[in-house]
Amino acid sequence: MENIFSGITQGLFSLADPMILLLIFAGTVFGVVIGALPGLTSTMGVALLVPVTFGMSPEMGLALLGAIYCSSTYSGAISAILINIPGTPANCCTLLDGYPMTQKGESGRAIALATSASAFGGFVSIFALLFLAPPLAEFALKFGAQEYFLLALFGVSVIASLSERNMLKGLWAGVVGLFLSIIGMHPLTGDVRFTGGMAELYSGLPIVIALIGLYSIPEVISSISGSDDSPKQVNTVGDGVFSQMMELFKYKLLSLRATIVGIVVGIVPGAGSSIASFVAYDDAKRSSKTPEVFGTGSPEGIIASEASNNAVVGGSLVPALTLGIPGNAVSAVLLGGLMVHGLKPGPTLFIENSAIVYSFIMSLFVSNLAFIPVGLFIARYGVKLIETPASVLGPLVLGLAVIGSYAINMSIVEIGLMLVIGLIGYLMKEFDVPREPMVLGLVLGTMAEGELARAFSLVHGSLPMLIKNMFTSPLSLIIIALTALSLWQGVRKQFLAKK
Amino acid sequence: MKKTSKELFFAVSITLISLLLLITSFTYPAESSQFPRFLCGLMLLFSVLILVKGLRSKTGTKEKSNTEVSSGSIMVKLKAPVLVFSLTIAYLAGIMYIGYFVSSTIFLIGTMSIFGRQGLFTKTIATAGFLLVVYALFVSFLGLRLPEGLLF
Description:
A: mainly alpha, globular, B: mainly alpha, 79% helix
């Protein structure tokens, strides 16, 4: 506990740097715009800006990325409420009650509630991250190479729940992600594999390039293919927004319950903000005194959806920072951002880089406050951005993807690599293959291969010995059991969905 | 192309690719290719399972009417991806030969004109805003050296 408080002090000191505060503000503006624009997701927003953080200190870079994550998760509610299109998948439930409120002329009240609920959910979840992550990290120090390998497998097992619609294709995509992550030199022997003679691939496929390609190109193609390119007409937010925000306090218990749902769902790897939003919405409806109002403009529906999806932010970062297992696709990309700055996610992160980690966590508190004025301002004055036609937005996103890929190593070849991954992403979307399992595989693959190689060398290359060790160590057995449980739950979910 | 045929085409393609990768994995030293071999084997297994599933659903839906997509609509569907990839490849060539800023201006205004019917004012403002952000963020702030071509 003492370490946590000294970490908090360190983090607060880092926030005294005006440059960090400026970056949080810039990240918030960017995140709110990205989130509010339908078709552009939080994952894509964070992925596009990872290259921008290269020249910054880790504290600055992570503060910027964290601000985008928090604000884009919130601002999808703006377009959901105003134009009945969720800005990000996390805001799907918000439109169920948000748009009916707009139709009744209550868009200002709906946005005010979404803003205060998002800030509340996000804020509480960062507290959870602050106090849950360090003890979990301390426990994880007991892990050896074989446990880490099993942990990576556990992370991969989440694919089962990430690909509810088609588990076989999801598993295939996960394995492809793992395969892409092992391209390049072997972690112990240094042998070069599957590079096709390209020197740029010797140190592996840059994860940021893969993420930019996977998420930007397919979205641009689908937005450009859409037949409706006409600007959308939207209502703006009226006066008295701040007093309407206070209405949240009428629903204290509901907000807290939805936040807890978000944190728990966020901690479970693979279950993202949209799942949290649906679970919390369902729970709110079942426990409401007026369930019949849900879907026709219920403030409770908006609060449940928004408090829970923003609470996923803190929850998803708990396993990401302490175990190196991303809770969802955005935190997977954020992990990529951490790695780019030379940080190794895992239990030692809180010991070796405590100043950076606490600075990041404290910056998330500020981000959750920053999106309140920015979001309300954009909802009122900058709402014209939502009207940006796809034919203008698409080329700008492509331009950003190109410069982002080039900035990593100042290499034109890497832009080509991004395009190849973009083509793979487009084909995956066309053939209904989920992309999230591939991201998970990409993030966990390097850890899985490295730790497996180390575990093998510890038992002098004896497979029976390795298997014996895995089934005699209590920690390994727990992880194996959790992996089996995760797979079983995924299979069960799919079986029930088919029924 | 019918939906089931599309699925079969996908399954056959990934099966062949997985097989090729599995064969390639055996060309590397055993010590450093055990994990790749395992992954390629898994990839092949899942590809075959997807293929089997596709074949089964094809037999199952033989009698039922299927969503037939005409070749005309395939062409319409392919228009956006073909244009996006070919324009971006041309943009890359432009970056190498005529420099980043000139090729970006041509690419952005050209692509916006191809995909929509926005006025020249909107296109010019969007392009100028984008280039200004790139210059401020990447060149001034990060000190990134952008490719220079024949012009600048």
